[in-house]
Each structure stands twice: as C-alpha cells, then as structure tokens.
Amino acid sequence: MGSYPGAAGGKSVTAWALYLATGAFAGLLAGLLGVGGGLIIVPVLTFIFEAQHFPHEQVIHLALGTSLASILFTSLASVRAHHAHGAVDWSTVKTIAPGILVGTFVGSLVASRLPTAFLKIFFVCFLFYAATQMLLNFRPRPSRQLPGRGGMFAAGNIIGGVSAFVGIGGGSLSVPFMTWCNVSMHRAIATSAAIGFPIAAAGALGYVTGGQGTTTLPWSLGYVYLPALAGLVAASVPMAPLGARLAHRLPVAKLKKIFALLLYILGIRMLASLL
User: Fold this and answer.
1) For the whole prediction, is pTM greater than 0.70?
2) Integer distance in angstroms from the first to the last C-alpha of the chain?
C-alpha cells in the first residue's frame, strides 16, 4: 500500500476504499447499537496507517485525532434525530459542557505528547472495559441525582479527558454516569449524543494544535489526517440512519454481544502489535 492516498494509482484507491469501508461499518454500528464509532475507527485506522508505513511514533495519535474529527460530523446527525424526539436534556448538556471542553482539550494536548506504546495500552484497557460493559449489559444502579455545577464540571473533566485519550464521543462514560444519577436510559443516550459534539470539537482542536510541527505527512492538519477523515465522514454519515432503522428489525441484544467479541479481538490485535 502507498504511503498516503494520492501517492500512486491502485494503492491510493485501496487506501480510500479502506477509509470508506471503516466509516460505513462504524456508522452502521453507531446507528444499530448506539455505540460510538470511535471504538472501531481508532484500532482500524491504526492498522491502516501502519500498513501505509506512516511514522510509527505518530500512528496512534493520527488515529485518535482523526476519529474525534469524524465524530464532529456524525454526532450532528445523531443529535438532530434525538432532538426531533425531544429526548435531549439540554440543561444537562449546558451544565456539563464547560468541564467537557476543558477536560477534552487538555486531555488531547497531553495525549499528543505521550508515547505510542502508552496510548495503545491505555486504549486497549478501555476497549476491554467497553466490551465487558456491553457483553454483560452492565448498568449502574440509579442511586443519586445529578450533582451541581462543581460536580458536573469535574465529571465533564473526567469524561472529556478519557475520551480524548481513546478518540471517542464519550458515550461509554457519559451514559453510565447519567443513569447512575437517575436519568432514564433513553434520555441518557440522547443527551450523551449531544455531549459528543463538544467532546469531538475540543478533542479535534487539541490534536490539531498538539500535532503542529510534529508530523510531516502530506494532507494532515496536526494529528488529523484529512484523506481518512473525508472517507470516514462520506460513508458514516449516511450509514448511521440506516443502522437506526435496522435496529427495529434485528436482534440488537445478540448483536451487541458479537460486537463485544469483535472489540476483544481488536484489543488483542493492538496488544500483539506492541510485542
């Protein structure tokens, strides 16, 4: 495979096809299972970038930054659909957003300066957590109410910071947090989709800023690789609504268990690449 799309003929086409396929799969799963595409996008982009012989020390950073940038676009479609059903709690979004913005931006700046091995291990640990959460259908027992502004700022810092380290929209963290605070599952999922936009915005900006002067790849904006971003967005945005429609016809509970196993496989594959 060529070093980057546009480098040479058929190899360039192969790279574009892989970006489109990754976006389509991630978008379909996001709509079908209600999970963030970043859990798929980050490991798959890592494998693609490694096959393209991108600088080894920048591969995971580029995957994380590009994933967050793609969520900017996909989250808008998701939020629009949830808002149309009146399911988004905008007061919660407004309260937690300052902590989200600060935590994600600072987290992405820190992550952009950390070594590849650490970020890969951190991502794999989170991937195993998310897979186990999905496999066991774990939901924290509602035992309290949403905290005040200070507590929400702290929660936003944690959710945003971890999301920046793993390149996701934060649903694996914000949904359990809100259900623990007596928010209904339906409303928590919808509100989490809205929270995903400031996470993506601050995270993408952090990786763009943190990658300035670091990567010499053509067509990159800091640690956001624009050809991959274009392919992901072009395929994921139209596929997410299709996945949402299929969710009413397919056995989602069983599919979640299959997806959890896929996450375990991806995690093991990423660990193997470190050895």
Assistant:
1) yes
2) 23
